[in-house]
Design brief:
Layout (H helix, E strand, L loop, with lengths): L1 H19 L1 H8 L5 H23 L10 H24 L2 H8 L2 H13 L5 H18 L9 H22 L5 H26 L7 H7 L7 H27 L2 H4 L6 H13 L5 H25 L12
């Protein structure tokens, strides 16, 4: 049992590391290509991999689900989350964008009450406020350094959190591979629709790097850039397998905290590939966000912990 726990933790940590490689890959092409083109190429590469995974997991017939509507809505929420997150990366240092994105677990806990009807303690809500304090310290509104792209990263975290709550509602009948297949389809269709809309509207340029990354017209990529975009498809597929394996081998409430290891890689990639040095406020704000998330997870775990066996013998 202990060996499975260790394997699960290692698998999850490796999955988080693999997923983090998408960030520098996307940022590296964000000054020359549109995010929709990156998403389309990534999705085309990932499609055959996901088909194989679905077939091996539950069979391809599972794609024709009775919950097609919910799966599709959730997939396009994920598409929006993915898009605005990478729009933020085009304008922000990697460390800032990723640290703000790690508000997602706190958003999940805050929204679990109104959406799922789950009980949310005042301690959990207090940790959300601590996390928001970390956000304020990081973005420093009014200090002349605020970039509204930070709101994109926060918005992405909120959308991702809501999509995960939807996954909890439909996860009793739908596998993670089927949900990933729908997500990939939404990325491909959504990217084509967004790119086509801006093309027909004649919007091809913008001043802000995030908006420019969205509206820039598609161009035929140079081979090195194409390989970077295509690598995102392999990275996403490998990351999904490793994360799924991690949660399969070990209890979710025991390994979920290790997802925060992702915040360690973004400053490293930012420094190695883009010479970005995190500000002191970024580090302090990130510490508050991580600390709040870990405290909230620990609080929820204690609330769900079963009572000791001897308590069952107490008189009513």
């Amino acid at each position: 049992m202990q060996n499975r726990m260790v394997q699960g933790i290692l698998s999850l940590c490796l999955g988080v590391l693999v997923f983090s490689l998408q960030d520098p890959l996307v940022k590296a092409v964000s000054s020359s290509y549109p995010v929709t083109e990156v998403m389309a190429i990534r999705s085309i590469v990932a499609l055959p991999i996901l088909i194989i995974l679905v077939q091996a997991d539950v069979g391809l017939r599972a794609i024709l689900s009775r919950r097609f509507g919910l799966l599709t809505i959730r997939a396009f929420i994920q598409f929006t989350s993915y898009t605005v997150y990478y729009l933020a990366i085009a304008a922000l240092p990697l460390a800032d964008a990723v640290a703000l994105y790690f508000m997602a677990p706190l958003f999940i806990m805050a929204l679990a009450g109104p959406y799922l009807g789950e009980s949310v303690s005042w301690r959990t809500l207090a940790t959300v406020l601590i996390g928001m304090l970390g956000v304020v310290i990081m973005v420093r509104p009014g200090a002349g350094l605020f970039d509204w792209a930070a709101l994109l990263s926060l918005g992405s975290a909120a959308l991702y959190g809501f999509s995960q709550l939807m996954a909890r509602k439909i996860g009793d009948t739908e596998s993670s591979t089927v949900m990933a297949f729908y997500q990939n389809g939404a990325y491909l269709v959504g990217a084509a629709l967004v790119a086509g809309t801006f093309h027909l509207a004649g919007i091809t340029h913008a001043i802000h790097p995030s908006v420019e990354f969205l509206v820039r017209p598609w161009i035929w990529p140079a081979l090195p850039d194409f390989l970077k975009m295509a690598a995102c498809g392999f990275v996403a597929s490998a990351g999904m397998i490793l994360l799924s394996q991690g949660y399969r081998l070990a209890a979710a409430n025991r390994v979920a905290t290790f997802e925060y290891t992702g915040i360690l890689w973004s400053p490293l990639w930012g420094f190695l590939f883009f010479a970005e040095v995190p500000r002191s406020t970024t580090v302090f704000g990130a510490v508050l966000i991580i600390g709040a998330g870990l405290l909230a997870l620990n609080t929820e775990r204690r609330q769900k912990k079963p009572a000791p066996a001897m308590a069952a013998t107490d008189p009513a």
